[in-house]
Write a structure and sequence with these properties.
The protein is of the alpha/beta class and 308 residues long. It contains twelve helices and 13 strands. The strands form three sheets. It has a six-stranded mixed beta sheet.
């Protein structure tokens, strides 16, 4: 009897210890018990900033998503904005972090479905388009831009093309490229700001988040460049996925992103990624971008976004 009681007591102690140990372990949130139908999730990135800085930033997010989803999340960086449309199918991407204009194009041409977008460190999840010039140029408005050099970003960007074209149209200039003395495409928002700063262009257009970050890094830019016009806010680069992605996987990705800011590990990843969290995003958030396209006369279903 004594031996039996001793064995029972020992078993109870072991069970209690195992239960306590399990309780002490942090809960591994989000990890599915299966790989949700595929082993890899391939996401595309548009070149909105220096490609090396971009890769470093998204590697952090990819590692976090891979762990939480139980599959490998890889990113492919594209050399040009418009490439995201033509390469989406050819490279068999599962999704991409689309710019506001490229999302509208992909929605109309590919039927992609939105999931979420990052929240900036200042609490916003949007950006503005800026038109700017060197203060020494004497350019203050559209009238001063005639015959001058303009640095656009890409024909598939809101801040770097769609907004400045609409700006000229609002002021009665139907053919902005002819109105200007010279215009060219820089390929990224950072490069457009630098082109004006270096005197390669008199005027430029870019998103405010890129401009503000560069000014923070080099305050001299803020003194040498003046903002001429700003667009209405548009959604920050948002993750949208192919329309036939496994619904269970799509829901899992959404859940992981939207709950990152409530997970200690996620909070640390967000700091390195440069965001406060993620917010759900819908097609209606892009009403302003759709309106700009109509104003400029762009049919999103057939638009030729390649630079000319």
């Amino acid at each position: 009897m004594t031996r039996t009681r001793t064995m029972m007591a020992s078993a109870l102690l072991i069970a209690a210890a195992l239960t306590a140990s399990a309780c002490d372990q942090p809960a591994e949130k989000h990890v599915p018990r299966k790989t949700l139908g595929q082993q890899e999730l391939l996401l595309g990135l548009i070149p909105d900033q220096n490609i090396f800085l971009q890769r470093e930033r998204y590697q952090v997010l990819g590692a976090y998503l891979s762990k939480k989803l139980g599959l490998t999340v890889n990113f492919t960086s594209l050399s040009r904005y418009g490439n995201i449309i033509e390469h989406f199918s050819s490279e068999k991407m599962d999704g991409a972090f689309f710019g506001s204009f490229t999302y509208c194009l992909a929605r109309k041409q590919l039927g992609v479905e939105l999931i979420a977008r990052p929240v900036n460190p200042d609490g916003t999840s949007t950006y503005y388009g800026y038109i700017f010039a060197r203060r020494s140029s004497g350019i203050r408005d559209f009238a001063d831009m005639k015959g001058k050099r303009f640095a656009f970003v890409e024909q598939a960007t809101t801040a770097g093309y769609l907004f400045p074209i609409s700006y000229f149209r609002e002021h009665g200039i139907s053919d902005p490229r002819s109105y200007l003395g010279q215009s060219f495409f820089t390929g990224s928002h950072d490069a457009a700001v630098h082109a004006v700063m270096r005197g390669e262009a008199d005027i430029g257009a870019a998103k405010n988040t890129s401009y503000d970050r560069l000014v923070q890094e080099d305050p001299r830019m803020g003194k040498d460049i003046s903002i001429i016009a700003a667009s209405e806010p548009v959604p920050q680069n948002s993750l949208a996925v192919r329309k036939d992605l496994d619904p269970e996987l799509k829901a899992a990705v959404s859940r992981v992103l939207l709950e990152m800011d409530s997970d200690p590990e996620g909070i640390e990843a967000l700091k390195k990624f440069g965001a406060r969290g993620f917010v759900a995003t819908t097609d209606s958030d892009y009403a302003y971008v759709y309106a700009l396209a109509v104003q400029v006369g762009i049919d999103l279903k057939v638009y030729n976004y390649r630079n000319r």
